[in-house]
Amino acid sequence: MKNMMRSNNCIFARFLFFTLFFCVISTFGLFASKPYAVVIHGGAGNIARESLSDEQIEDYNNKLAEALIAAEEILSNGGTSLDAVETATRILEDSPLFNAGKGAVFTIDGKNELDASIMCGQTHNAGAVAGVTTVKNPISAARKVMENSPHVLLTGKGAETFAFEQGLEIVDPGYFFDRRRWNQYREFIRNQVNRSRSYIDEDLKMGTVGAVALDIHGNIAAATSTGGMVGKRYGRIGDSPIIGAGNYASNLTCGVSATGHGEYFIRNIVAYDISARMKYKGQSLAEAAHFVIQEKLREQDANGGIIAIDKDGNIVMEFNTTAMFRGFVKSTGEKGVWIFQE
Ligand code: ASP
């Protein structure tokens, strides 16, 4: 009897050992093989190669690379796509090179009004702020709206008060001032007075930023942040904080962050349209993005582009302008940053 119990115990111990062994191996195996990817943009527009010096190009490329490295650090350590897109977007917001956070474009009355949004593809939760003038990093305010409020979109004073209550950094509106943007604004006003140029000059409105990521847990997130379009009426809200227009994420299809002439991106519900084409028409991300940007928007003379990642980690960077600041990193080792059409 004793012998039988001993041998039973022995079999049980072996069973336990092998079960644990296979659990550990498969967990590490899963971690090792699960893909991650992050793609970012710093705005799309029609700019000529000659209008940027080699030094400026290097500055843009370095800043894009810095944002990608920070996001990859999070993703490669098993962090979430939400943390990755918020971190990358904050880095671009803090840089005066881009039209988001510091260095945002000016409204018609010479102020900076900022919009941002974030979406989680796993839960379909979303948060956004619009028309904020004192929140240093609007993308973080958008995330707080998503996670700590029952709402999706807060605007103006209400968004600023909420951001303050959430412990986010509040700055004087003068913090966002950038001399280069101010000169662009002055030029815009001069040209408007002379009526020699259209309402929005293509070169002047570039620089919205965004990030989309897929983490090793299979979750997609998307973030977009902007100062909007130079010379916009105060109170104007573009596509960037509008879920479905300038930003969308669903684990079932893809994550999208957009940049371009916001009014068209709202009317065409660009980000959601790409996701819906995948879901209901069975299109690939590349087919859906190509159709929306190169056919649908082009027919309307609407300029801009998108970055996107699908649930399998495929990346698309589609734009119908001459340039879009952009870059990506994948767990496969593929990576790069670009500005002009390849
Ligand atoms: N989409 C932004 C807006 O209309 C501008 C941009 O992306 O350049 O506010």
Q: Quick summary of this structure?
A:
This protein has nine helices and twelve strands.
Describe the structure.
It is a single chain. With 342 residues, the protein is of the alpha+beta class. The protein is built from 9 helices and 12 strands. It has a single domain (37-340), classed as (Glycosyl)asparaginase (Glutamine Phosphoribosylpyrophosphate, subunit 1, domain 1, 4-Layer Sandwich), CATH 3.60.20. The strands form 2 sheets. It has an 8-stranded mixed β-sheet with strand order 4-3-2-6-5-1-11-12. A 4-stranded antiparallel β-sheet has the order 7-8-9-10. A hairpin with a 4-residue loop joins strand 11 (323-330) and strand 12 (335-340). Residues 20-31 have low confidence and may be disordered. Bound molecules: aspartic acid (ASP). Aspartic acid (ASP) is lined by residues 43, 205-206, 208, 226, 228-229, 238-240, 246, 259-260, 262, 265.
